[in-house]
User: Fold this.
Amino acid sequence: MTQIYDRVAVIGLGLIASSMIHAMRRAGLAGTITGYDASPAHMQMAAEDGLCDQLAGSAAEAAEGADLVALCVPVGAMGQVAEEIAGHLKAGATVTDVGSVKRAVVDAVAPHLPPDVTFIPGHPMAGTEFSGPRAGFAELFDGRWCLLLPPEGCDPGALGKLRALWTAMGATVEEMDPDHHDLVCAVISHAPHLIAYTMVGVADDLRRVTDSEVIKFSAAGFRDFTRIAASDPTMWRDVFLNNKDATLEILGRFTEELFALQRAIRTGDGDMLHDYFTRTRAIRKGIIEAGQDTAAPDFGRSTRRPGE
Ligand code: NAP
Assistant:
C-alpha cells in the first residue's frame, strides 16, 4: 500500500486512535505519526509501547506541520482541542475527528479552524468496550463502515485522501449529513446503549434481592447487555449530552413500544407478541445477510480477538 499522508497527528491516544495508528502502520499509510494525550499515564504507555513515531508535549505541538490531524478525544473535549491547535495548523492541512456525535462536534470545532484548513468530520462505526492506548488493534475497522460528513463545497482532493485513508485502514466509507447521522446513530447505537445501561442498573438493584444469582446464572441476553454497559463512562456521558434531541426522540418511541408490549403481556395478547417478535427476527436476519454480524450463536465471540 502507498503512503497517503506525510505527517499525521493523532490527538487523544485511546481505543480509536491506537487502532488507527496500528491500521495506518499495517498498510504504510503515514510517513510520521505524532501523538498527544492529556493523560500522563496514557502518554507513558504510548512511550513504552512505541505507539507513535513521536510524542508531543501538547495538542498544538502535535498539530504543528501535520498534513492530517485526527481528533480522537471524547466528544465533549473536541471544541477545546480545536481551539488549542487552531493557531498551529499548516496551511492546506486536513482536520478530521472520530466522535460518535456529529452536529455538536461540527458546531464546536469548525468555528475555531482557519479558512486554509479543510475540516472533514468522521465516525468509524467500530469499537469495543475497552479504552486507552493498549485497547487498539489494527483490524478494528476491517469490514466496518466509516462515515464521513464533508461540509458543502469541501475540497475534493482533501476528501479523496481521507476516503483513501479509511479504505486502506479496512473500512467502507459512506458520506452523510451530520443531522441525519445523529438520528441514525441514536437508533442503532445511542438508545441501545442507554437501554443496556438501564437493564444492567436494574439487575444490579435486584441483585440484593436475588442474592448475586444475576451474576452466577447470567445467560446470553443479560451478558450481552453487560458488555455494552461496560463501555467508557466519559465517552457515553458526552454522547448523550451532545446528541440529546435525537436520543430523546428515539427513547420516546421506545417507551411507546414498551408500553404496547407491556399491555399485550397484561391482556394476554399472544398474537401481538408473536407478530412483533416475527418482525424483529426478520431484522436480525437482514443484519446477518448484510454481513454486519455472524449467525453464530455466541455472536462470533469464539472468533474474536482476546480482550475484544
Ligand atoms: P478512549 O479510549 O477513552 O480515548 C480517549 C483519549 O483521549 C483518552 O486517553 C483521554 O484521556 C484522552 N483525552 C481526553 N481529553 C483530552 C484532551 N482534551 N486532549 C488530549 N487528550 C484527551 O476513547 P475512544 O473509545 O478511543 O473514543 C475516542 C472518540 O472516538 C470519542 O469521541 C468517541 O465518541 C469516538 N468513538 C468511540 C467508539 C468506541 O466504541 N469506543 C467508536 C467510534 C467512535 P483520559 O482517559 O485521561 O480522559
